[in-house]
Amino acid sequence: MNKLLIVGTVAFDAIETPFGKTDKILGGAGTYIGLSSSFFRLQSAIVSVVGEDFPQEYIDLLTERNIDVSGLEVVKGGKTFFWSGRYHNDLNTRDTLDTQLNVLADFNPKVPENFKDADVVLLGNLHPLVQSSVLDQMEKKPKLIVLDTMNFWMDCALPELKEVIKRTDVITINDEEARQLTGEYSLVKAAAMIHEMGPEYVVIKKGEHGALLFHKKEIFFAPALPLEEVFDPTGAGDTFAGGFAGYITQSENISFNNMKNAIIYGSNMASFCVEQFGTERMVKLEKADVLERLQQFKALTHFDISLEDEE
Predict the structure, then answer these.
(1) Torsion of CA 164, 271, 294, 305, to 10 degrees
(2) Residue 310: inside a domain
(3) Which domain holds residue 274?
(4) What is the pLDDT of residues 27-58, one digit of tens each?
(5) 241-279 pLDDT, tens digit each
(6) Residues 6 or more apart from 241 whose CB is under 8 A from it?
(7) How many domains does the chain have?
(8) I want to staple 45 with a disulfide (CB 3.0 to 4.6 A). Which of 91, 115, 228, 246 is the partner?
(9) How far, in Å, CA of 6 to CA of 243, rounded?
């Protein structure tokens, strides 16, 4: 089986939405990516750091999904990264209430020896220097390097971010971040500028409005599945990235046409994530649920149309 190396936070979140609120629960980009990608035929490992306060049951949850945690450092006496946020009524905007870096402040990633030859590397949302450090440890160039980032790093570490962007094949960011990174309002122009920075493929996420895939002059759009219940959008972008990278790793095909399928798989996984608080839905998710909803995506997006002149 092909190998997927995941780099990202394993953390605690406290979330408030119009539908309720939580105390500290399992979160972090690496966690969402790992749970999402575990539904594909691959070997995966998470590179991250937690404190001594991180429950063993959460680590067991990852290993039960066949996720290698030998790259998950546990700092004795340390506290795990914590984020707290409150979503507005539209669920598209949120306020960060608290961020405690804790052990993440001094994180020095260590890639497990048996994953230094990983086929796909997914650099989850972390400081660009941490992301670059992981790439420096790879013994051979991965077939595909996928980068996820956010506006926070554009504000405080833009030169370092641009350096890691140069080294990646795919970047996934949302529409607001694409505009901030390039200064272009048009997402088509923004994607073209990002191509020039290094990535061959640009994925621009638009939340409940789907996702766009850009490759040179080619564009593909995948809608988000209309859902009866959207409870908590935390981790949806990471879950999308996990589904996207998981499918690519499993299929061993990095063509533009196969990336279209990966976008659908990523959107499919993200549609489950938002249905409950935090990782709750992803933990309960069954393979049969994933396949059934894929059929809904196919029905939503598939159509036949005649392009002949009907006059």
Answers:
(1) -90
(2) no
(3) 3-296
(4) 999 999 999 999 999 999 999 999 999 999 99
(5) 999 999 999 999 999 999 999 999 999 999 999 999 999
(6) 33, 36, 122, 124, 146, 148, 172, 266
(7) 1
(8) 115
(9) 12
